[in-house]
Amino acid sequence: MEKFLDCKGLVAPLDRANIDTDAIIPKQFLKSINRSGFGRYLFDEWRYLDHGEPGQDVSQRKLNPDFVLNQARYHGAQVLLTRANFGCGSSREHAPWSLQDYGFKVIIAPSYADIFYNNSFKIGLLPIVLREDIVDQIFREVDLNVGYYLIVNLKDQTVTTPTDETYTFEIDSFRKENLLNGLDEIGQTLQHAGKIREFEDRKRIEQPWLFT
After folding, report:
1. If you ran DSSP here, which 8-state letter would residue 62 be given?
2. What confidence tens digit (pLDDT) does each residue in 163-195 have?
3. Domains in the chain and their CATH numbers?
4. Which of 19, 63, 121, 191 is spaced 20 to 30 Å from 183 by Cα?
5. CA–CA distance, 34 with 11 (Å, rounded to integer)
6. Taking the model in full, what pTM does it have?
């Protein structure tokens, strides 16, 4: 997992509440267990006017011009601004995978479904919780300003607007350190590799039958 660095990112506003994981990545695309390649299918039923299937050449599909990610002003966005209860529904890990693979580094919403929230941290995607009135204000500013960006400083736990308005957010200290150091669950385990080897060496002496 890559270290989370400060993010100065273009904001894409997805003004819907209760977006479930099936909307984020429809079920027909869940056949792969690799984390890459899902970005092309992100919000598939909203981005395209036809039904999508795995392996389809997306360049030949007809885009929905009304969907926010298809609008030129939001191309290359790294911050997704959305509404309450984002990521509800099933527990599929592919939902945060597809958001990250598309290019998002940060999501901002008033609340998240618990499983989606936890899965995001595991891959280095930062889900930030801000009060609903603050989210409302940012939505208004994004609408009025083409190229609207936010600066996210994880170390200081701040989100700063182009007019230098700064909002703070809460994050568990353990998750914060893991993001800053680029440690997923495997990386956390490998920090104790020496002790694990010592344990295995001792067990080989004490219980050799386990290793035959």
Report:
1. P
2. 999 999 999 999 999 999 987 665 555 555 566
3. 7-181 (3.20.19.10)
4. 19
5. 27
6. 0.88
